[in-house]
Design goal:
Elements: H1 5-10, H2 23-26, H3 35-50, H4 60-69, H5 81-90, H6 101-116, H7 120-136, H8 139-158
Helix pairs in contact: 3-5, 5-6
Length: 173
């Protein structure tokens, strides 16, 4: 449950970013699902791709109205089709039609298969994991990281500030 839900019910000052609030939160429904987070994910993806909030307005009330009618800012013309479709599925106004997290992953896989003939995100993830494992098994990397950690440990054992009494302030921790 989002931390601002109780404030929404009490109609106290709204806490959070209203631009990323799902319609069911704006409607002050007493029950809602984790799909409010899928909505917020769509807003975050949109922002990361466009550097603009998906629903804008001159004041919070106008922003809420834009969310409720689904008035989304236009996508840039060179917007990746897969991202556009994912964001569109995340920002489904009807909570019952909005996909959950597992369905979102399945939807992304189907889009990639349809577009590229393969699931590229899985291939990229596998390649990144292989690269990580090959780097982490490199003895030269371990030698460098161990020498760094030893020098830091010695630095603190000797007393970086020249005195072991640097933590005597009872308000420090």
């Amino acid at each position: 449950m989002p931390y601002n839900y109780k404030k929404l019910l009490k109609k106290d000052n709204f806490c959070g970013h209203v631009n990323y609030s799902a319609p069911e939160l704006i409607q002050e429904r007493h029950t809602f699902s984790a799909k409010v987070d899928i909505w917020s994910l769509g807003c975050c993806l949109y922002y990361l791709c466009t550097k603009k909030d998906p629903f804008e307005g001159r004041n919070p009330q106008e922003i809420k109205q834009n969310i409720m009618v689904g008035r989304l800012e236009r996508y840039p013309s060179k917007f990746d089709l897969i991202l556009k479709n994912l964001i569109h599925k995340c920002l489904e106004k009807d909570e019952s039609k909005r996909l959950n997290a597992r369905e979102m992953l399945e939807f992304q896989n189907s889009l990639e298969l349809e577009t590229y003939g393969e699931i590229r995100s899985s291939i990229m993830l596998k390649k990144m994991m292989e690269d990580y494992l090959s780097i982490s098994s490199n003895p030269m990397i371990h030698k460098l990281s161990n020498s760094d950690s030893n020098s830091n440990g010695e630095q603190y054992e000797k007393g970086y500030y020249g005195s072991e009494e640097r933590y005597n302030n009872p308000h420090f921790f």
